[in-house]
Amino acid sequence: AGQTSLNSRDQRMHVATFSLILGFLVTVSAFAANPLAGTVKFSNCSGFLFTVEGRTPQKNALVMTNGHCLDPWGLSMLAPNEVRMNRSASRDITLVGESRRVKVTTRRLLYATMTLTDMAIYELPQTYEYLQTRYGITPLMLAQQGPSNGTPVVVASAYKNRAFTCQIEEVLHGLREGGRSFSDSLRFNAGCNTKNGTSGSPVVLPDGVTVVAINNTRNNNGKMCGNNNPCEVRSDGTTTVLRNRSYGQQTSLIYECLNSEMDLDLNVETCRLPK
């Protein structure tokens, strides 16, 4: 389920400078205005810096990618119904801002699953406030509601250094892929030709800030329900296949699992994420 050239304006690369921040070696490169601002590059996938309504700037920043991106070498994936929570995790990633790219190291894996959705959430040692003040990097905002059919979106991939202009063609009952089931999935239009490496990319509304989903898979060969060949699942259980179509998973369900401090808490009564 691997999934993007940067439509950048005024690309100007400057000499990289180095500084030691919070015990982490941070490499900073200055660029001109960047349409991929808020995205994150992993060694094997894409991702994005995000926040939710009501979460304060003084809290540690959060990054999202796909659950199937946990293994940097792609040798293993989470099993159906497997969940990982609150584990130390040091991964080197690159944050993309409007004018800079900053390399940092994650501190903790807060949550990861490939059941119901395809999601991994990392915590950084830096706060949103620190990233904004020091580097001018701000998070994308998760929408509290999902998109409707026909919604125009951008799939923005730091890994491929490219943004894809797409459209939500249909909100599906679900997807099945390699024994794993996803719910309330999104099918993108036929012209949305995401590539390997775009997994974990934010699916962003035209305002350039609001995220409605996370890009996660594509049917490569027209096969039925296998890895890299997801099938669509209807409410009556029937399955269909559309070759060369890309899919994403809605992110608004995160709001069902937030406590009063706007932190992820799977014990919240409304939370549907698997434990």
Structure, described:
The chain is mainly beta. It is 3% helix and 41% strand. The protein has 1 helix and 21 strands. Strands 12-13-16-21-18-17 form a 6-stranded antiparallel β-barrel.
Question: What's the gist of this structure?
Answer:
The chain has 275 residues and is mainly beta.
Order of strands side by side in the largest beta sheet? 12-13-16-21-18-17
Taking pLDDT < 50 over at least 5 consecutive residues as the criterion, the unreliable ranges are 2-32
**How many distinct beta strands?**
21
Average the pLDDT over all residues and give the rounded result: 89
Order of helices and strands: EEEEEEEEEEHEEEEEEEEEEE
Please write out the topology.
Layout: E1 17-21, E2 24-30, E3 39-41, E4 46-51, E5 60-65, E6 83-88, E7 92-96, E8 100-105, E9 108-113, E10 119-127, H1 128-135, E11 140-142, E12 152-157, E13 162-171, E14 174-177, E15 180-183, E16 185-188, E17 202-204, E18 210-218, E19 231-233, E20 239-240, E21 246-250
Parallel strand pairs: 4-11, 11-18
Antiparallel strand pairs: 1-2, 2-8, 3-4, 3-7, 4-5, 5-10, 6-9, 7-8, 9-10, 12-13, 12-17, 13-16, 14-15, 14-19, 16-21, 17-18, 18-21, 19-20
